[in-house]
Design brief:
heterodimer, A: 121 residues, mainly beta, 7-stranded mixed beta sheet, 4-stranded antiparallel beta sheet, B: 106 residues, 6-stranded mixed beta sheet, 0% helix, globular
Chain lengths: 121, 106
């Protein structure tokens, strides 16, 4: 059974940093691209970042480019999102999502339960 | 970047009704569209990918069609458990943009 478990969310001041983790199980982690998708309260879904199965290819939404970094540790089946220079508008539930192929650029066939990030003073 | 415009933003229908949701891409994206269902307080689930392929376990009352710039999600006979917000998503290339969502009520 595919399981994705996010952690690392919390309250952070504007300008601060936070690192999200997503521990994966139930599939061969290195064989699949992964993404982060966020959702502000009462709002729609926003894709944030994507990384290929090998980690060689990474993509970012314009809204986070230069501030967020996606990475993965295939030996530990874990996906990361390093978030720097956080702003109030980054407040959202962050989901990690699995894609059905190792190459980036697909839909999401499994989602984690989400981790809440709140940026406020 | 290619934008995905979903319509309507909300709708109300009766049990048994046929419901259609439309998603328009600002440029052609072949059939690289997926549809998701998000029930209140729950995680999104994929319903359809490649514009018209039903994901495993999804009821057959859901169907998708379209290619290029116009795509539709159809619920052939609306059920009470279909109350949710539905999103389209393009995945031809990054950014993997979502539509704004359609809230479906009974």
């Amino acid at each position: 059974e595919v399981q994705l478990l996010e952690s690392g969310g919390g309250l952070v001041q504007p300008g601060g940093s936070l690192r999200l983790s997503c521990e994966a199980s139930g599939f061969t982690f290195s064989s699949y691209a992964m993404s982060w998708v966020r959702q502000a309260a009462g709002k729609g879904l926003e894709w944030v970042s994507e990384i290929s199965g090998s980690g060689d290819s990474r993509y970012y939404a314009d809204s986070v480019k230069g501030r967020f970094t996606i990475s993965r540790d295939n030996s530990k089946n874990t996906l990361f999102l390093q978030m720097n220079s956080l702003r109030a508008e980054d407040t959202a539930v962050y989901y990690c999502a699995k894609e059905p192929t190792p190459t980036a650029g697909f839909y999401f066939d499994y989602w984690g339960q989400g981790s809440l990030v709140t940026v406020s003073s | 970047d290619i934008q995905m415009t979903q319509s309507p933003s909300s709708l109300s229908a009766s049990v048994g009704d046929r419901v259609t949701i439309t998603c328009r891409a600002s440029q052609g994206i072949s059939n690289y569209v997926a549809w998701y269902q998000q029930k209140p307080g729950k995680v999104p689930k994929v319903l359809i990918y490649a514009a018209s392929t039903l994901h495993s376990g999804v009821p057959s009352r859901f169907s998708g069609s379209g290619s290029g710039t116009e795509f539709t999600l159809t619920i052939s006979s609306l059920q009470p458990e279909d109350v949710a917000t539905y999103y389209c998503q393009k995945y031809d290339s990054a950014p993997l943009t979502f539509g704004g969502g359609t809230k479906v009520e009974i």
